[in-house]
Design a protein that fits this description.
This protein has 303 residues and is an alpha/beta fold. It contains ten helices and nine strands. The protein has a seven-stranded parallel sheet with strand order 1-2-5-6-7-8-9. The protein has a two-stranded antiparallel sheet with strand order 3-4. Helix 5 (139-148) links the parallel strand 6 and strand 7 (151-157). Helix 4 crosses helix 5. It is globular.
């Protein structure tokens, strides 16, 4: 997502090099969506993996509708005809004949989930999609969807400071045997300890995030300080510690840290072998959870 929008200026050359470096390091899951850009991130990913498609588990999403002429205006569409139209467009942009994991990006409250997933299941039958996923769906919706066609993955924000899924969502997907994909495992970069909110680019959407504003920021900084202290004692970076925490919450959890630069990619990848001690896990739990909503308008979350 950040390669094409939301996190400051684009650098397609460095982004492409970052994707190539990820593949060289053995990272195989690439996650995009039609609305990132809108549309241009799928094109970037498609061009980057040309000639290396067989090395990639390719995930993309549909369902959030944006007008390129007015990108801030958003809607949600889960109608069967929109599902098919979106898939065909994504296949063209990605330059592939199949999508490995196809997510409904956000649940459409005006379209029964059974109808949406039914249309997605047709794409599986036709060989255009291999596995189905949902993003930011609640337990009852997940159960209804899974009854129509097996749901392979649920993608939701999850990190040391975004632990809401632990109450109901994680138990539900574990009961059903659905994998959990944790997006923003670094808290939009804040958990790295390197984000200066005042210095963010004017186009950076984090400027408007409630968790990075006023008193919320002061409270949440305590969590970052704890991560920084533990990381220093362990001889790793705060980002590596935060990623290790997510990965250690279960074998069924796959964190997908986003970056558009090779140096941060390599730092993130090095976290794969880090195992936190019980004492470190307790210390992180004692730091508490973040204060403030994840998005300024929780009805329009778009990550």
């Amino acid at each position: 997502m950040g390669m094409s929008e939301f996190y400051g200026t684009r650098d397609d050359q460095e982004s492409t090099a970052t994707i190539h470096r990820a593949l060289d390091l053995g990272i195989t899951l690439l996650d995009t969506a039609d609305i990132y850009g809108p549309f241009i991130n799928e094109e970037l990913v498609g061009q980057a993996i040309a000639g290396r498609r067989d090395e990639v588990v390719l995930a993309t999403k549909f369902g959030i509708v944006r007008d390129p002429a007015n990108p801030s205006a958003r809607g949600v569409d889960g109608r069967p005809e929109y599902v098919r139209r979106s898939c065909e467009a994504s296949l063209r942009r990605l330059g592939t004949d199949h999508i490995d994991l196809y997510y409904q990006h956000r649940v459409d409250p005006d379209t029964p989930i059974e109808e949406t997933v039914g249309a997605m299941a047709e794409l599986v039958t036709e060989g255009k999609v291999r596995y189905l996923g949902l993003s930011e769906a609640g337990p009852q919706t997940i159960r209804r969807a899974h009854a129509v066609h097996p749901i392979s993955a649920l993608q939701t924000e999850y990190s040391i400071w975004a632990r809401e899924p632990e109450a109901e969502v994680l138990p539900a997907v574990r009961e059903l045997g659905i994998g959990f994909v944790a997006y923003s495992p670094l808290g939009r970069g804040f958990l790295t300890g390197a984000v200066d909110v005042a210095g963010l680019a004017p186009s950076d959407f984090r400027r408007g995030q409630p968790r990075l504003q006023g008193e919320n920021l002061d409270v949440n900084q305590v969590i970052v300080d704890r991560i920084r202290q533990l990381a220093a004692a362990r001889g790793v970076t705060p980002a590596q510690l935060a990623l290790a925490w997510v990965a250690q919450q279960g074998q069924d959890i796959v964190p997908i840290p986003g970056t558009k630069r090779r140096r941060y990619l390599e730092e993130n990848a090095a976290a794969a072998g880090l195992v936190l001690t019980d004492a470190e896990l307790r210390a992180l739990a004692e730091a508490g959870t973040a204060r403030g909503d994840r998005y300024a308008d929780m009805s329009r979350i778009g990550g």
